[in-house]
Structure formats: C-alpha cells, structure tokens
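Appendix C reproduces, verbatim, an entry submitted by the partner laboratory led by Prof. M.T., so that reviewers can inspect both the input and the predicted structure.
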Amino acid sequence: MPDALSSETIYLNIVQVYFEDDAFQHLNKLIQSKRHNNTNWTCYSCKNNLDTDDSVECDKCLFWNHWACVELTEAPLNDWFCPKCKLENNN
C-alpha cells in the first residue's frame, strides 16, 4: 500500500460509496494499521527509507521525499509541490 494512503489528510469516507461494506472496512483497517504501526516511510524519488528529519511531503500527491532528492536544503515555509506535480500543473 502506498505511504500516501496513510496520510492523515486523506478522508476515506468520500470513497466509501464505491465499496462493499466488508471491503471498505478491510481497507480502513489496513490504513489505520499502517498509520499507527508504520515507522518506515519511503522516499518517493529514491525509494529508500526516510530515516532522517530532512524530508518533505508534497501537498498534492502526498508522497514524501528526502530534501536532497528534490533539491531542497531546508523545509519549505509554505505549500510545497514535488517536481512531478509541478510539471503536471504546468501542462
């Protein structure tokens, strides 16, 4: 399951109507488990663990990246979009 689904900003209830009750409950349990038990987040760019505080979450796709992987030297002060999402927004 992608790390982005574990983001606290994801509201699963908006997609519940597209699931059978049992399937939605199963998905919800998986996501809650990942939110509470996952200490190993993955960098979207390099696919390595995010084992430092020097990482940033894209405000659009919700994937995390090491600062170095997205050419940052410090945490952004405002909303931040990864290179992939910036490119999509420009097209």
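Helices lie at 21-37, 83-90. Additional entries are available on request from the coordinating office.
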